């Protein structure tokens, strides 16, 4: 007997009911865990939606992509320097006039590159499909990610059709995987290591998976249609050298763009080593960039 496989197909995520809202801060609604995709052979993928309690019209969208070395992480975690904020960073963005989407994605233990950017593209499509339900203006969408999430945000922004997003923000993100060995201090990074985070993302050591390493590098995909970028990195980052962000900025300039690059003196990964004032400034610069990119003048 042959079982009709179409009966096993999940419902269309675009037609599923939205989660019941929570209220994590005054004036803020949180729809936690809306299913946006169900990849075959994988768990359902979900997104948290931070929205105002009341909005006068469709809102611009910030899509935040979490870090965690492509191996771990929580979709609503901006890092240890922000966990004590009250209200938190996403509630602050809502109060500033934005909707925020925080998707999860398949980690490297579940699927190799390019599954992660495929998932983010699926989330962007889902947001466009549900825009009327959620009060979103998805024509004004900015991607923002930290660490591995910054890498994925940049890679998604640079590999999707022009106009998919109007801007991209990266915090201390790897951008050129084949150049990591050169950018690290001698002996600090082994591109032949099959157990490194990059190897787990690529399905093999970067030195052996050279085509995949290039394809997974945002610098490879920079072209004339790239959206505007804001790129922030600490000068003392021991995990992802600041030179990685410089490489992305150089590639964007070579393609005719004018990215905003800021290197923060003494900053390590996750903004360790910065003062609270400097961390606040990183957030403020990000919000200001989003506001400029989603405003009517798009400056």
TrEMBL record:
Domain BD-FAE-like as annotated: residue spans: 48-252
GO-annotated molecular function: hydrolase activity
Acetylation is among the record's keywords: no
UniProt keyword list: Hydrolase
SUPFAM superfamilies cross-referenced by the UniProt entry: alpha/beta-Hydrolases (SSF53474)
Keyword Calcium carried by entry: no
Domain of life assignment: Bacteria
InterPro entries linked to this entry: AB_hydrolase_fold, BD-FAE-like_dom, GDXG_lipolytic_enzyme
Gene3D superfamilies assigned to the protein according to its UniProt record, in alphabetical order: alpha/beta hydrolase
UniProt name for this protein: Alpha/beta hydrolase fold domain-containing protein
Organism: Streptomyces atrovirens
